[in-house]
């Protein structure tokens, strides 16, 4: 029973947070983190289309933002469209290269 009450309580909190983030976006529509945070709330409420939309808006402003990429992935998973992420994933400017192997120095006999 407490689990059900907790879910209802959290749903109310996420609805309120969405309202607050929406208001904040009206005053600062170029703040990508507001869209990312609202995406999180939508995802928690299983409103995956809205979560995806906000994640994509945040990524349009800050393409390499890790949390935005994570939010988009979570929304796509919720929509059961995770194959779209790998197909449309953004290209990073630099590829991370694994470290070069360390060669063992030959010891003196």
UniProtKB/TrEMBL annotation:
It comes from the Eukaryota. Residues 88-109 are annotated as: Disordered. Gene3D superfamilies: Tetratricopeptide repeat domain. SUPFAM superfamilies: TPR-like. This is Uncharacterized protein.
């Amino acid at each position: 029973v407490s689990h059900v009450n907790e879910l209802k309580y959290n749903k109310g909190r996420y609805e309120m947070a969405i309202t607050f983030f929406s208001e904040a976006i009206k005053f600062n529509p170029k703040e990508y983190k507001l869209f990312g945070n609202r995406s999180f709330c939508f995802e928690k409420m299983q409103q995956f289309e809205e979560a995806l939309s906000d994640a994509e808006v945040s990524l349009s402003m800050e393409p390499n933002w890790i949390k935005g990429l994570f939010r988009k992935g979570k929304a796509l998973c919720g929509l059961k469209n995770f194959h779209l992420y790998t197909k449309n994933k953004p290209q990073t400017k630099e590829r991370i290269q694994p470290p070069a192997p360390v060669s063992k120095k030959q010891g003196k006999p």
